[in-house]
Amino acid sequence: NSHLKEKANAGIDFVANGNEPFWSLDIDKGKGLTFNSPNIKTPITTPYTDPTITNGIREYVIETESAKLNVKISPQFCSDGMSDFIYEYKVDLELNKKKYYGCGRLLHEL
Questions:
Q1: How far is CA 51 from the centre of its chain?
Q2: 3-class SS at 83?
Q3: pTM of this prediction?
């Protein structure tokens, strides 16, 4: 898919998205994490920090002045409920105490 190729070429290492509400997350080890959703005015970008890894689950816990972001990436098959595509990772995300659920795909090694 050309959209994923563009992201990979831009250096994005992992992409995730979910529905109800729609949201997306890009993880770039060199730059940071970027969360976006139509219900926020501007994307939220945080610095990259190494995750803790327990039983294959990667957990990013990042706190900035404006955002507290917790992302769990689990290696299990996931369907986004909107397409027939099966993703390799399940993603649970919490941003400022609001929970989001979705699926993710590895573009480069994390």
A1: 13
A2: coil
A3: 0.91
